[in-house]
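BUG: 3D viewer hangs when loading the predicted structure for this chain

Environment: internal workstation, default settings.
Expected: structure renders.
Actual: progress bar stalls at 90%.

Input used:
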Amino acid sequence: MRLIPLLLVFAFLLPAPFARAQSESQTYDPTFMTNGPQGAAKDAAAAQERKAAEQGFISPSSVQVSLVRESYMEDNQFGLRMSLPDVVSGCFSYSPLEYEANFVDPYFLDIKVKKYRKIEASGNPDTRKCDVQNKTSSAMMVLDKDDLKSRGVKEIRFSSDAGRDVYKVSLQDDVLELIPESMTVFKAYPLSGELKDRLAHDFGNASTIALQVPMVNAGEDITEQVMAFATAHALTPSEKNVTMSLSDNNKPTYYFKDSDGRFAAMIGADGYGEIGTITVMRPYDGPDGRTQTPVELRVFVTRPGTEL
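Structure tokens produced before the viewer hung:
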């Protein structure tokens, strides 16, 4: 009788699935099987991000969007400013915010915000001197009202690695409004309108600025002091606005003409700039009873429609 080798018998007795699994295990590639070419692309993108981070490049997770007008701009122009929402200080500097913009005629303006770079100060950390003033990264795209109108732009589509948001464009006469459909990443500031739900720019009121004193008490009359401050700084009452308006909390805002753009240039990315102080007299209870004591209040310049 011819004997079958023991090893061959054992192979015949193994369950079929087990035998197949052993055979496949020699060529199993989990990266290929689960992700395929898409997985390889993701890995390459992740490697690029790591390399960029090592070189100091950062992709913003949030971007603040504002409408501004600088003194060098023509009457029909305005600036779409994109900036980091946080202002920080330290022994480093930021590069401008990198972006790409393309008109997709008709109807769309696509803006992709990419990266910025944090640049560390050179030299020995223990001995170097550096500027530790507040810093942020920003970019500004100069646009023209007539160009937007001729193209029929209806939406600005913002995007970044962190997400995308769409702003509807409304352009009627001399008023431009950008109305966010969402603000997941790209956050409008300062919001205006009755519902505080949009960005607005009045081209017919381009040279008007507003003076505000946030620390004024509700109902306190500071008109005389603000007018004296404006006169000392060669500001004249606005021709387009009432001289003064009251906010919902009964605090005043004063409007003036800024013909040369000197004060408008002091408005920062947060929508305001500090330009001086006024002095008001307030009650003071002292050893001699109630008297009046001078108190200094800071004065800020903003665009009309911005509420501090």
